[in-house]
Structures are given as C-alpha cells and as structure tokens.
Design a protein that fits this description.
This protein has 92 residues and is an alpha+beta fold. It has one domain. The chain is 48% helix and 13% strand. The chain has four helices and four strands. The strands form two sheets. The chain has a two-stranded antiparallel sheet. Strands 3-4 form a two-stranded antiparallel ribbon. The structure holds zinc ion. Zinc ion (ZN) binds next to helix 2. Zinc ion binds next to helix 2.
Length: 92
C-alpha cells in the first residue's frame, strides 16, 4: 500500500485504472502522514487499498456509461424502486 523512497513514504494508488492516474500521494516522513494526506485529498479506500481521485472519476464515468447503455433499471436489483419510494416518504 505504501511506496518508500529515500526514507519517505507515499500511498500508492491501488488500481491505476485512469490514464492520468496520480499513481501515488505526497511523499511524507511516515506512513501515517502519507495516509493522512490521501485522506485529506479524499482518496477512496476500497478495502484492498487506496485509489486516487483520478481513478475514482474514471470508475464513475464508466458506471455512468454502463447505465446509459443498458438503461437504469437493469442495473438495479429487484425491489430497489420500492425501497427508494419508502426512503422518499420518510424524507417528506
Ligand atoms: Zn489512480
């Protein structure tokens, strides 16, 4: 999850999915500081590792594209609309 160079640490982007992927975060004196930096930058923690905002944006775009191609409903599990309606009622 961390890269180390010249006694400095940086969080590595886990996915490197985007062409303009940041690849790693700021170089810091400790792993803790490196992780704090990516948290402040709002990198996303996937459970396996961090991924950068560029990759997050890349995934969001792909998701939007998939929805357009297949239509919203095919993306949703059965009963999702009912849950949504309940949620809206609760808000009102
Ligand atoms: Zn990335």
């Amino acid at each position: 999850m961390f890269a180390k160079r010249n006694d400095q640490y940086s969080v590595i982007c886990h996915t490197r999915a985007a062409e303009d992927c940041s690849e790693n975060g700021e170089w810091c004196d400790s792993e803790e500081e490196a992780q704090e930096w990516v948290e402040q930058e709002c990198w996303i923690f996937s459970g396996e590792g961090w991924f950068c905002l560029k990759c997050n944006y890349h995934f969001m775009q792909n998701l939007a594209k998939t929805r357009r191609d297949k239509g919203m409903n095919s993306m949703l599990p059965d009963g999702w609309d009912d849950d949504l309606a309940v949620g809206i009622d609760t808000v009102r």
